[in-house]
Amino acid sequence: MLKVENLHVEVENREILRGVDLEIKPGEFHVVMGPNGSGKSTLALTIAGHPKYRVTGGRILFNGENINELSPDERAKRGILLAFQVPPEVEGVKIIEFLQQVLVELKGLDPVEAYDLIVKKAEELWFGEEDLHRYVNVGFSGGERKRLELLQAVLIGPKLLILDEPDSGVDVDSLSVISRKIEELHKKGTSILLITHYGRILEHIDKENVKVHVMKDGRIVKTGGGELVEKIDKEGFAEIFEEVGE
Ligand code: ADP
Ligand code: MG
């Protein structure tokens, strides 16, 4: 479904990704780990089509189509959703209005139908109806922001969900809800690309079928199974980098 081939990406004239290869088949669960600055967010934002991230080599194929030149909006229409590492505040835009618009545009629901669905799903992510009348992320805690990203994902039901550190800045209780929701989406058939530092977010996820990639300096230097997560949690990255001669 997603095929990243020898991807090179520049940000402000600096090469950040230096030849990334990654293939995600329908329904698969992939995890990307790596130290700060290794290029994880760059990979996520480039797949989602952020204009600041310039592809200087390689291709991104989604269901066989080269999407390098597509706008973020067109990528979203094809089923790619990115949950941001730091979800932005949007002053003046109410959550409910934003989500209604998304459902009307992407799913063809009428606004009333959309409203009811949003309220129902929001409850599962601990948002009451009154919360939905707040502005998007304004004054939100880390946990609330990440839960709101998950709410969008649950409502949209993307083909590919990219989660950029859904566990950063999140309290333990939110972490558990988020982990469960990720697993729920995965079970419903969404392919997942999850970027994380810690194994904890995988608490509710069946690690047997997870593929783990370790990034360093803009490249994937090792790929393995769920056991890599535990190894990294215990030993950090140094050991792995030594093994692969990085
Ligand atoms: P990670 O998510 O693994 O911590 P990033 O992809 O955010 O890493 O960053 C990789 C490198 O690219 C870092 O050195 C960072 O400073 C640089 N970088 C990323 N985004 C930008 C940007 N928008 N402007 C300038 N430099 C950036
Ligand atoms: Mg990052």
Strand content: 25-35%
Order of secondary-structure elements: EEEHEEHEEHHEHEHEEEHH
List the uncertain runs.
none
Radius of gyration: 18 Å
Average pLDDT confidence is 95
Could you explain the architecture of this structure?
By secondary structure, the chain is of the alpha/beta class. It has a domain of 169 residues: 3-Layer(aba) Sandwich (Rossmann fold), CATH 3.40.50. 36% of the residues lie in helices and 29% in strands. It contains eight helices and twelve strands. Helix 3 packs across helix 4 and helix 4 packs across helix 5. The longest helix is centred in the C-terminal third of the chain and has 16 residues. The two termini are 30 Å apart. 39% of the residues are buried. Magnesium ion binds next to helix 1.
Task: Kindly summarize this structure in a few lines.
The protein is built from eight helices and twelve strands.
Per-chain topology:
Blueprint: E1 2-11, E2 14-24, E3 29-33, H1 40-48, E4 53-62, E5 65-66, H2 72-77, E6 80-83, E7 90-94, H3 95-107, H4 111-124, E8 135-136, H5 142-156, E9 160-164, H6 172-187, E10 191-195, E11 210-216, E12 219-224, H7 227-235, H8 238-243
Parallel strand pairs: 3-10, 3-11, 6-9, 9-10
Antiparallel strand pairs: 1-2, 1-4, 4-5, 7-8, 11-12
Helix pairs in contact: 3-4, 4-5, 5-6
Bound molecules: adenosine-5'-diphosphate (ADP) and magnesium ion.
Structural key phrases:
alpha/beta, 8 helices, binds adenosine-5'-diphosphate, 246 residues, Rossmann fold, single chain, binds magnesium ion, six-stranded mixed beta sheet, four-stranded antiparallel beta sheet, globular
